[in-house]
Amino acid sequence: MSKVSFDGVRKVYNEETVALDGIDCTIEDGEFVVLLGPSGAGKSTLLRVLNGLTMPTEGEVTIDGEPVQGEREDVAMVFQMHYLVESMSAFKNALTGGLSREGLGRSLLTLYDREEKMAALDALDTVGLLDEAEQRAGSMSGGQKQRVGIARALVQEPELLLADEPVSSLDPKAARDVMRYMKTASEERGLTTVASLHQVDIARKFGDRFLGVRDGELIFDGTRDELTMDVFDRIYYGEEGASDRSERDSERLAAPTRTSSDSEEATENPETPTQPTSSGGNP
Ligand SMILES: Nc1ncnc2c1ncn2[C@@H]1O[C@H](COP(=O)(O)OP(=O)(O)OP(=O)(O)O)[C@@H](O)[C@H]1O
């Protein structure tokens, strides 16, 4: 588990594009945090400054009190595009997660020891793919591939798991499956998790806490119950757009009804947002 702090984090690309504009926030050990925000809001940049792929222009990001100054072994990332080697089995793909732990000097041809193989099998078991361990990645469904991507991240033995739109390209059922396995993995392994998602219904189902980013600013930090339709509209459509609800409400009403598998996500809060509609990136 890791505690993460953003202290006045600002990121400006090419001296003109402000991607993050003074982010202050702390993520506690073991939290499962969902990042929400329209396209270009700064979500990927926020994840990238967390895993050291990008350095802030101002401010500081710390993990367990240590400033992030580059890529870290205890931070693993799951991407929208899983970047698997399609010709290799799920097992071999998962094994490569250990490379970031062991250093890039090791080649894929290296013989892995028993402990590493057990870690890969254990990770595949965590994501429900033990029986498919020998299956070629290229022959797997999109959801299965993403689960292999999660297994590969788990083999790295991270304390902090980051996921950048991990289910954006999946159908709703596969997306839920992937998120369910990611949540289970985080709980079983005590990971702190930060995932950016556009599907608000899925976000609400799995997130413990929600950060809303818009124009590089953190405009919402709250719980599931606090993530009302108004808040959601403010995150995705801005203050002005949030007042223009009637058109979107009619689109929402015209949307297909939920399937029975969706119904477990109770609408205990009548203000519960469903799926974002017209603008704001993927929604
Ligand atoms: N490497 C880069 N160089 C220049 N500008 C960048 C770079 N990466 C991101 N940006 C810009 O920074 C802003 C924030 O981008 P970012 O990718 O963090 O947003 P996002 O919320 O993840 O969007 P999306 O949901 O579309 O992925 C955007 O204006 C984007 O064009």
Essential attributes:
34% helix, alpha/beta, six-stranded mixed sheet, disordered C terminus, Rossmann fold, binds adenosine-5'-triphosphate
Describe this structure in words.
By secondary structure, this protein is an alpha/beta fold. The chain has two domains: 1-74 and 161-283, Rossmann fold (3-Layer(aba) Sandwich); 80-157, no CATH class. Helices cover 34% and strands 22% of the residues. It has helices at 43-50, 90-95, 97-102, 114-126, 142-155, 172-189, 200-206, 229-243, 245-254; strands at residues 4-13, 17-27, 32-36, 58-63, 66-67, 75-79, 160-164, 192-196, 209-214, 217-222. A six-stranded mixed beta sheet has the order 6-7-8-3-9-10, with helices on both faces. It is globular. The chain starts with a strand and ends in a 29-residue tail after the last helix. The model is unreliable at 259-283 (pLDDT under 50). Bound molecules: adenosine-5'-triphosphate. One of its GO terms (molecular function) is ATP hydrolysis activity. Residues 239-252 have a biased composition (Basic and acidic residues). This is ATP-binding cassette domain-containing protein.
